[in-house]
Amino acid sequence: MLWSYTKTTAFYALVLVIVVISVFPFYYAILTSFKSGTALFQVDYWPTSFSWDNYISVFSQGAFPRNLLNSVFVATTTVLLALFLAVTAAFALSRVRFRGRSLLLMTILGVSMFPQIAVLAGLFEVIRALGIYNTPWALIFSYTIFTLPFTVWVLTTFMRELPIEIEEAAIVDGATPWVIITRVFLPLMWPALVTTGLLAFIGAWNEFLFALTFTSSNLTRTVPVAIALLSGGSQYEIPWGIIMAASVIVTVPLVVLVLVFQRKIVSGLTAGGVKG
Amino acid sequence: MANIQLKDVRKSFGAVNVIKGVDLEIRSGEFMVFVGPSGCGKSTLLRLVAGLEDITSGELLFDGEVVNGLTPSKRGIAMVFQSYALYPHMTVYDNMAFGLTLEKGSKQQIRERVTKAADLLQIGQYLDRLPKQLSGGQRQRVAIGRAIVRDPKVFLFDEPLSNLDAALRVATRIEIAKLHEDMNNVTMIYVTHDQVEAMTLADRICVLRDGVIEQVGTPMELYETPDSLFVAGFIGSPKMNFLSGDAAKAYNAHTLGVRGEHLNIVPEGGKWQGKVIHTENLGADSYVYLEMGMEEPVVVRLDGTNSYHTGDVVHISPMEDKLHRFDDKGKPIR
């Protein structure tokens, strides 16, 4: 009895610690973003004053709205491109028998071993050679490369689980591979697509190193870089309020996306098609 | 309407030969059943006919035309899978219409054909439902409906009843038999490991074993004149009794086969005698299992119930004209 109480207490204590560690910084960021002037440097745990000043200045100074659009464009395009390539690749890797298939799968996984910094220089040269330096395409290109191994791997595993009979039934019905992918498999793969798509989006949205390296002008930067480069009135002033407001703004889309799509992550969508 | 010919068809997966040279002609409009124990290659053979597997060597002809290289839909086949294989995200209507929409038929025409098939199978009221909202039997009807809608020349069934419970299996079996009567110009091939399904449905049965054909014939031919010990043991329920040793020698055979229904229990002076080790009463008939020193107990099938008890010693006599004699290679002596 006592032991089970202890266990329950310990469990919830741990949950509390996790929640505080992960949520408190964000809470404090929101709190700070509504402060102004010297109030910024007072430690408060509850809202004391409320002003939109920081938000207004974030949107009125510099190229922040443009940076936000860049982020949206880069992340969305990356997700669409990665999902398209990954779904078609997953079909081949899970359903078409060919020599060297497992070697290819391991290679794809192997690619994700390399840290960003190790390929930075090489990738920089490739991007210069392709002539897409300082354009959003440089980021889309590099993010897709880094997202694909994971996306392909997850979708391949998921597609393998889909009953082979459903595919064969479609073949008998006269469906081409493209029709099978788009009209039979894709609707069944929603949960996996949403999950991998969301992770790819978050990855692209938060990425910093490539975004810093492959862009040079304020108009092509994405939000993470823009925030890091926000500067105050003088060399000695760090505009904490504005930085916090910008951070809150970039976090909101992610929270909204997760909330929207968690409803889409329906399990058991394949139930009923085959016995079991 | 299609006459199907298999000429020395072989299939191997890597080094494993699954189908080892099959020659078979399936007449147009015929109901052919492939039967055999698990692993005999019957499903593989069906998939070769369907076009879901490539034929390693040999020829497959539909109406005299080689179709080895044609895709399943080009061959004009439709297939019902063991696991139903319905598209889980589509309604019953969409499931049935899928093949037709790919053929780019007019909406009106598709609706007519789907409705007609649905009425035939009595699933008209479920057209808006998803497969997961249907019972196993209903799903199987949808799967059959999806095949009918395409108006195939050849209808293939891959153990369609094995996922249904016993009562439903009998009912669906009768429906498939009726379907065959209604669609009498469609060639049907049906795979099963259940010899009862084979006996009741087939025009002709093809018994397979280890990738080769053991015997092809009508159900009664297989029952009355099996071409091998294997076929004799596989067709018929309960299994045919095999007697060896002295009992067989008396008839100049290596093995003597006699079916349970062709044995009589006699009061005195029977040919053989044995000790009752088990009895089963099924109501309409009953089985008595006798220990006679053979590998397996000898089964006697009696009409009505019986009142024998374990431990009784009884005399039995076979019907002399119903005996099957086999030589030491398992071939019949006639």
TrEMBL record, chain A:
The chain crosses the membrane at residues 12-30, 68-91, 103-124, 136-155, 184-205, 238-261. Keywords: Cell membrane, Membrane, Transmembrane, Transmembrane helix, Transport. It comes from the Bacteria. Residues 68-261 form the ABC transmembrane type-1 domain. It is a multi-pass membrane protein. It is found in: Cell membrane. It holds the Pfam family BPD_transp_1. CDD domains: TM_PBP2. PANTHER family: INNER MEMBRANE ABC TRANSPORTER PERMEASE PROTEIN YCJP, MALTOSE TRANSPORT SYSTEM PERMEASE-RELATED. Belongs to the binding-protein-dependent transport system permease family. This is Carbohydrate ABC transporter permease. The lineage of its organism: Bacteria, Pseudomonadati, Pseudomonadota, Alphaproteobacteria, Hyphomicrobiales.
TrEMBL record, chain B:
PROSITE patterns: ABC_TRANSPORTER_1, ABC_TRANSPORTER_2. PANTHER family: MALTODEXTRIN IMPORT ATP-BINDING PROTEIN MSMX (PTHR43875), MALTOSE_MALTODEXTRIN IMPORT ATP-BINDING PROTEIN MALK (PTHR43875:SF3). It comes from Devosia algicola. The keyword Nucleotide-binding applies. Residues 4-235 form the ABC transporter domain. The gene is ugpC. GO terms for molecular function: ATP binding. InterPro entries: AAA+_ATPase, ABC_transporter-like_ATP-bd, ABC_transporter-like_CS, ABC_transpr_MalK-like, ABC_transpr_MalK/UgpC-like, Mo/tungstate-bd_C_term_dom, NA-bd_OB-fold, P-loop_NTPase. It comes from the Bacteria. This is Sn-glycerol-3-phosphate ABC transporter ATP-binding protein UgpC. Keywords: ATP-binding, Nucleotide-binding, Transport. Pfam families: ABC_tran (PF00005), TOBE_2 (PF08402). Belongs to the ABC transporter superfamily. SUPFAM superfamilies: MOP-like, P-loop containing nucleoside triphosphate hydrolases.
